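Hey, I was hoping to borrow your eyes for a little while. I've dropped the whole record in just underneath, so have a look:

——
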Amino acid sequence: MNKYERLKTELETVGNGKMKAFGDSMRPILKSGSLLTFQKSENYQIGDIVFCKVKGRYIDAHKIIKTDANKGFLIANNHGFENGWTKIIYGKVVEAEFKNEVVFVRSEKK
């Protein structure tokens, strides 16, 4: 089981999980090698950094930039590259740690 399948299973069964994410597509919000804490949610909104599936590929930490009642959520990195539309979101980033220091925290909006 790869890290994506493991996290997907954790989110579906427990409701939260952690995974390291690599790459610079979400800089300056997230740094490559950050340990991300994901949480399953009933509602996702523009600005949430999510773990999802777009066009059959796992996207481990890109953000929602648009929503549409029919298409779902438009996912993109922090530099404007759009991955595409999806209705499959497993969870969102609620905290990111880099070198044992918390660098990002997203509070739940009600």
Notes: The two ends are 35 Å apart (CA to CA). The chain has one domain: 3-105.
